[in-house]
Write a structure and sequence with these properties.
By secondary structure, the protein is α/β, with parallel strands linked by helices. It contains nine helices and eight strands. Bound molecules: zinc ion.
Length: 240
Amino acid sequence: MTAGLAGAAGAAAVGAAAVALGYASVNPRSSFFGPVIWKGPSSANAVALSFDDGPHPRFTPKVMVELAKRNAHATFFCVGREVDAYPALAREVLAAGHQLGNHTYSHGLGADLFSERRLTEDLRRCQDSLAKVIGAAPRYYRPAVGVRNPAVHAAARNLGLTVVTWTHAARDGAWPLSNRRARTLGNATRAGDIVTLHDGTIRVPDSRREGTLAHLPALLDLVCGAGFRLVTLDALLAGG
Ligand SMILES: [Zn+2]
């Protein structure tokens, strides 16, 4: 192999490694950087829905109404600064039987995602905000936009948090949820799955959440109609 070809092969290998690392950081099922829960046991006929980025004064109550109609419970991964802005709403979510988890205090991206010190401090602030509501620090942490890397897992370890991603995502953070997407998601859901949606509007227009609310009933009806109980993460991981 000539020096030029060897150099090209080396560059290709480095490029492939970078792609693999990038994939591991966003693949919700990858434990490359550390332990992650993306699914619960399938032994019980249960599914855990989760809602990220709230609490939101306009949308979170409407999500709770749809859940209550079906005797469903979910886990709300809250942004700490939204909890501080709407503590009474966070208490309402808890009082309705739902679970609250840590979705960082500021939902910072960029440099915040790569500094163990900054991320630990941000997560600690969210733990403190949620502890005022719950009476104890939450145990589950969903990283902002689901990205995992060494800093994310180190910060989680520092605070005794368990990193939780998902089996299926509605992707309603990136695009408005459509009826078709809601139905695809509902039909794909199996026992033990963790399904993620959004109730908050971090960095997205309110119209994005209108789509979630418009098509959440179709998703809930499909999952409940298939005979699954909708439970909190604690209940799912305890066996449903
Ligand atoms: Zn988020």
